[in-house]
Structures are given as structure tokens and as C-alpha cells.
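Bench log, entry 3. Co-assembly request; chain sequences pasted below exactly as received.
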Amino acid sequence: MRRSLILDVVVQIVFHSTLLLGIFLLMTGHNRPGGGFVGGLVVGAGISLRYLSGGIDEVRRTVPFRPWTIQGSGLMLSATTVVVPVIAGRSVMEHAKFDLHLPFYGAVHINTAQFFDLGVALVVIGTILMLLVAFGETMPSLNNPYRRQESDR
Amino acid sequence: MRLLLPLPVLACLFGAGASMAFGRQRNAQRAIGTIALSTALVAAVAILRHTDAHGTAIAHMGGWDAPMGIALVADRLSGLMAVVSAVVLLAVLVFAMGQPGTEQEQPSFHPVYLVLAAGVFLSFLTGDLFNLFVAFEMMLTASYILITLGGRLDQVRSGMTYVVINLVASTFFVVLLALLYAALGTVNMADISERMHTLPHGMRVAFALLMFVVFGIKAAVFPLFFWLPDSYPTAPTAVTAIFAGLLTKVGIYCMIRTQTLLIAKDDRISRFLLVIAGLTMIIGVLGAIAQNDIKRILSFHIVSQIGYMVLGLGLFTVAGIAAAIFYALNQIVLKSTLLLVGGLVDHGAGSSGLTRVGGLARRFPILAWLFLLPALSLAGIPPFAGFVAKLGIIRSGLDAGQGLVVAVSLAVSLLTLFSMSKIWNGAFWGEVELVVEPEDGPTARWGATVPMLGATGVLVAVSVALAVFAGPLYSLCERASTALLDPHDYLRTVLP
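Structure output for the full assembly:
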């Protein structure tokens, strides 16, 4: 498979901004549009760009973890966040907020719902990776029309 | 209660996550699955004990009170269903571990199975109609994967039917929710129940019918059953067993819950349910008689037996609904056991076709016993639990003055016995005939591996125990039924 230089360079530039946008949506989701599901999808879209430029090997290089590890730990994280408030004597799924003052950074407003959302995002990212692995593993076959055009040229 | 009510669901979901993360270590997956379902079982038993002693229990999600927030609500009926389901889920998991094939080749089996279990528990425990929809979707999405696991051509073909019919049912469900919300402004079951009387009578009947269709497709009542005998037998044995035992009974549970809690007793609905019950019984058993494969015969019997539960519900008396609950509990165990035995025959003899195998009673006597006990119970022969269940249905039917449908149910009972003896004659008596002679090892000696036999044996023991403890269990069902027909305690707990 011949790689396209233009696509490669553009993906290099766009990839990191896509990841940042995904993380932004994940963090802002608590009281504005966004959240774990959307954030996960945007990060997944970034990874799909990698797939477009370099195939499944490129995806494997980008994400060092197995898809099911990501998906499983996301589900475990969400389930744990649900149970933790019970230990503190509250209802299941109840959430709390903290205001922290970090040195250099300033005031940070953290809600425990964020961790639930992070779990959701991980499940979504894991699912997208699984799809890429399941459907994108095989190399283009010889009778692929695009492939033939390329060799004709 | 705060932790206990959601615990069965959470244990299964957490287990599913862990099982996914350990996707390549089969032993770890097995341990996780067993631990998660055992936790669910213990929690379910605790819920049942608590609800029987103290009445309805409630847990508010996220600290938001009902009807604004989602509440998990458990009464005796939820507790009973959850306990029996947990036992069957655990036994079938052990069976799957012992069976070469699906569980050992597919790393996705364990996580998906646990998600299915979480969906089943959530449908029994939720007190919110939209949350029930979510539970159904969890259960269904998992079942779409399980039914086509392995990807054989016939599996995918019948899996398509299954997926399409369930998508249609889900669409009906969403439409029902939208209409209910538009009419009443709430999806909390207790709240719906309290506001239902503000609607005109015709609209209430329309809602009752829509609910009947939505849950009737899941429960496979006549005429909405056609997808079931086609799609269930092609799945792997463990999957067929769990679908046969649980999924249709989740439909019956929802039918009992919605028709008693949300809809006030209505003679026309009652008569409609009785007619449907009679037709379901007859069509199901006639379909079973025409079949020649153990798994297909049993799949038609699922439909036929659903009719008895709808009959109990249709009477709308304490005795009738108590009998329906006992019948459902017994059927969950029986149907799973019998389909597991069908799988054992398939495994030991190479086929479950009645014309292709024979003489299994001589070749594998253990298999014959494992089939005989639940089969007699299914046909309603004393002293098994099936007899107690049928007696309850028939007596409550006669007390309510519904002689005709009772007569139908007795005739169907005879035909069931005929169809069981057909399996017995075809597969277990006669000359020893095996499609494939099993190689050495436990399969050659007993017909299956030790975990498969053990799991089936435990379920047979449970079905015998249902008969032994029928007295106390039946009075528990009666208490559950009394609470269902007079939901005062339920309503006061959810909306104080």
C-alpha cells in the first residue's frame, strides 16, 4: 500500500488537535454540551484518521493498549464510581464536587461525575478500536479496483 | 438497601468490565464470571428475605427521589424472579465452561453473558418504565451477540429474524413510553399507577393493549411467537438454555407487573388475556408435536407453557397470579434444564434429531435420568413441581368460573405428555444409534463432560427442590400476588 504524503502530514497536524478537542468535550460535559460519549467519539475519530493514513499498524503504534483492555477498564471505572458514594454513606450514583487550589494552575472545580464520564469515554474508544481491528485487519486484496488502478499507472 | 438493590446489576457489569480486560486469560474470565454471578445470587437472596419480612424496598439512584429520579424497587415478585434467575445463570455458566466450543473459542462470551445477566436483574428490580427499556436494551444487545456467536450461516439467518423482531418490539416500547409521558407526564411506574385513573377508559384499555404487545413479543404469546422456535435452537446450547429459561419469563414478569400495577382490573382485558392464553397453549403444543428435533420440540413448548402463565394472569385473582408466579419460577428452571439436556444429547450422540439418534437410555443412563425428571415435571405428573404449578392454575381457573380455558389447558397438558414421550421413545429407547461415536474420556462414558453433567444435575435438583418446598414457596407466591393486586405498600414506598 502506497502512503500519501499529503494525508500523512495533515493527519500528523490534525491528530493532536482532535485528541485535545475530545478531552475538552469530556471535561466540559458536566454542565455544558459534551461528555464522555461525545469526547470518546471525537478521540475515536482522531484514531480513525491514523487508520486512514497508515492502516491498522499505524493504529497499533498510536495506541499501545489492547482495545478490550481499554473497554474493560472503562466499564470497571464507571461501575466503581457508582459504588464509591455508598461507602461514604450516600446513595448509589450520587456525586460530589470539590474545589481544589493547585499551585501554579489555580482553582480547579472537580466533580466525581467526571470519572464516570471518563469510563464512558474509555468504553467508546475501546469499541472504536475493536471495530478498526475487526474490519480493518486485512490488507486490500489483489482484485481491489483501486489497487489495480494503482498498478496500471 | 442502598447498596443491596443495585448490587446484582453492578456486580455483573463490573464483572463484564473485568472479564473484558482479561480477554485473553480464560481462567481469569471464568473466575470473574463465577464470582460476579455468585455475588448477584447472594444479593438476590438477601433482597428476597428483606422484602418478605419488611415489604417493598427502594433505592434512589443518585439521591434523587422518585418520581424525579430513577428508583430501583423490589417486592417479593422481583426477589423471587431474581433468585431463580441467578441460580439458572450460574448453572448455565458452569455448563458452558464444560462444553467444548463457544465459551472456549470466543473470548467475548463471558463479558456479553454478564451484560445479559445485568440486564435481566435490572428488569426485575427497576421501578421506572424508561429504565426498564434500558434494561431490555442491555439484555437484547447482549442476546444479539450471543445468538450469533460462532457465525454459522443458519445462526446468522435466524439471528436476523431475532434482531429484526426485537427491534420492532423495542420501537413499540419507545412509542409506548412517549405516549405515556405525553398523557401522564411521568415514566415512574408508581406515579403512572396513581395518575392512570385520570385518563378516559378507552385510553386505559389502549395502553393496556400496547403494553401487552410490547411484552407479548418478548414473552412469545400467540400470535407474536413465530420468531422464537426458529431462532432459539440454532444458538449454542448454553445460550439457548438461558434464552429459553429467562428471556421469555422476563417478558411474563413485565406483563404481570404492568397489568397489575399500571392498569386497574378490567373485564374486557381479562377476557382478552384468557383467549390469548388458550390459543398460545394450543398452537404451541401442536407446533411441538409436528417437530422431530429435541431442541425444536422444546422451543415450541416454551410458547405453549407461556399460555399457562398468561392464563393465571388473565384471571386477575390472588390465586391465579400466585399460580402464574409459581409457574414462571418452575418454568425458568425446567426449560433451561431440558434445553441443556438437549445439548447433552447433541454433544454425546452427535445430533439432537429424533430420527437420527436412539437408545441413549442404555448408552448414557445418566442423560436419560436428567431428561426424565424435568420432562415428567413439564408434563405435570405428580409429585413434581410442574404438577403443583398446573394444579394451582387449574384450581384458580375453576374458582374464577373459567371452565373452558381450564379444559383447554388440561388437553394441552396431555399433548405435552405425548410430546415428551415422543422424545423419550425417539432418543432414549430402542436400539443404540449414535451419529458420531464419542472418543474416549468422560464423554464416551457418560455422554458429556463432568461440568456439563454437574450443572444440569444441579438444575434438576433445584427443580425437584421446588416440588419438595412447594408448600412454603407457594405461600410466598401468594403473598407476592396479594401485594401485586393491592399495590398500596408499593405505592407508599415509592411515593411517600
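Residues 56 and 137 of chain A are 6 Å apart (CA to CA). The first strand of chain A starts at residue 97 and ends at 102.
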